[in-house]
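Annex B. Sample input.
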Amino acid sequence: GDMIDAVRPKGLRVVFSTHPEQPVFGLPNDRWNDFLNDLYGEVATRYGSRLDGLYLDENTITGEMDQREDFPRLERTIRARAPHLMLMQNFYGNMYACDLGVAEYTSQQPADPLTWGVGSYQGIAHVMSRTWSAQVPRGQNAVPYTPEGIFRFTVMQAGTCLDGGGTFWAAGPYPGGGWETGVLPAMQRVGALIAPIARSIKGTLASTSYPTPTGTAMAALTWGVATRSPDDRSEYLHVLKPPATRTLELPAPADGKVFGSAHLLATGRPLPLHQDSRGVQVTLGPDDAWDPLDTVIELSVASQGGRGLVNDTSASVRYSGRGWSYGQARGMGEYQDDIHTSAADGAGFTLAFNGTEVALVVSAAREGGRLALSIDGAADRIIDLPKTGGTRQTVYKRVGLADGPHSLRGELRGVGRLLLDAFQVGQAVNDNAPSVVYGTLVTLNDTHPSIVYTGGSWHHQTGRDMGELEADIHYATADGDSFTLPFEGTGVEFLSNCGGGRAQIDFYLDDVFQGTVDMAQGMWARNLKLALRGLPAGPHRLRGVKKSGTYMEIDMFRVYLPNQGKWQAATAPGALSGDLHTTVGREDFCQVSFEGTGVDFVSRLDPAGGTVDFFLDSTLVRRANHYHATAQAPAVSFSLGGLPARRYTLTAVLRRGASLAVDGFRVDKGDGATR
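Annex B, continued. Sample output.
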């Protein structure tokens, strides 16, 4: 209470860090859980109204605390007394009954060029000294990073973090008080760098116009990252890699936004802005220069983006009849800031689309008329167009169509006006659709006889205590040494240790180069560093070659086997189509391939729901907790939009917890994926 009272007046919000896995020696599990619930219940009762959250520290690097602690019971105890609290934890594979997982990074390197760091969809707790507590003797500089490097990594993580939280910079005070040497001046300098652009990173969200994929390294950025204000009225471009010219050229926003004006955030000076179908260009003024650390450009949003939308100007739309005119830059908030309008009796439009559902989006007109709608040439209904209510009104929606090509026809009847803004096209995929594949992953230790180790520096070490599978690893020290895993399946994953001194590994699948993986990023054992899925059935070969670094460590592999596992189909009242596919098998997976610009994973959340990894093609894009104190179905547990229109494979893997229930998928077709 004294601590909260001291920091609240300074504008600091408090998440209280706790350790539920610190049991009294010899206490039985039931008595330990009784004690935990009494203790956390008292904390929530006494201090909950002044806290923003509780941090539950993970003490098992394989995510197995639920073998002793009853987290659903603990969550219910806390929520009954302080339902607003955010429950957070450092993430090692299992979110138990928490809301948010946070990655943990220790110091990675002694030097600090301005290009270090890898962003994550999760918040990152990053040690800015040697470790989580003060261990550097007084008088010795404890901070291996420059303030400028800390600042730039904080900016990049703000533009990457989808879960929220950004970066948690950790530093330990000495016993008796005082920060480790160098911590305070470093953070004061970081604060001074943040101050002129604070609103572009504090309280912001990762951009949907220019998203930065998780796992992107600072060195791999082409220009920088983007954030957005919570009300979505401002977009902030963080130019971390200045262009060679005075003009920043960006592609078209992934979410279809239209920007109205641009200015430098630090000075407020306006900048020339041009946007067309090819992209966005912002040019510095004659008295401006690129900041080598971060030039922040604030863009005002004239028109919001949207998922699965087809604009009125799409090639998929055909207009017929009299009186059609095109209105652009209206500043009314329509999608892509334009409309097609007509008031002529018989004026019509036809949308060709491919999916199972379609919606019509219009703006209100004082003389709004009547519109006759038909699907595939069959009359559906006649609607009255809105006369009030403004823009972006969904006036018609049709679902449950057979998957495939369709046409939506609209025709004005009598006197009145249509302000046509956009369409929304989607595809619903039920859990029992033929395109959904269910299976399981088989785990292979580094000692599996099928693995071939090539080179003279390989060693096998046993009796490890860092959580590796079977407490052993194979490791090599010589560049060029390699390993090869032959396998049969539709995918493969590589897991190993991370941290300082680990290697950079070149990976090949069937002799085709897949990329270089930096094993220095991350912490401790069983880090998933490579995942390849959606492979054609048949034999494959994964090869890894040590490129650089000190140690290439091999812990384990997982191979995807379709049509196996503990999956069961059953009826389920309340689910989308009255049925679910469920599994209680850890490492069981479901997979769907789709063409579109976004996808939702629809499932059931319940007290047995576990932690699920989601992969888009070969990239881990999110981990989501399917736990909820009361069963909820249907529920969207994972959502991803703003993708370029093409074919993707989404894979969900149950990593921890008791079960996963799959209800289905919803695909955004959008413009470019409608035909």
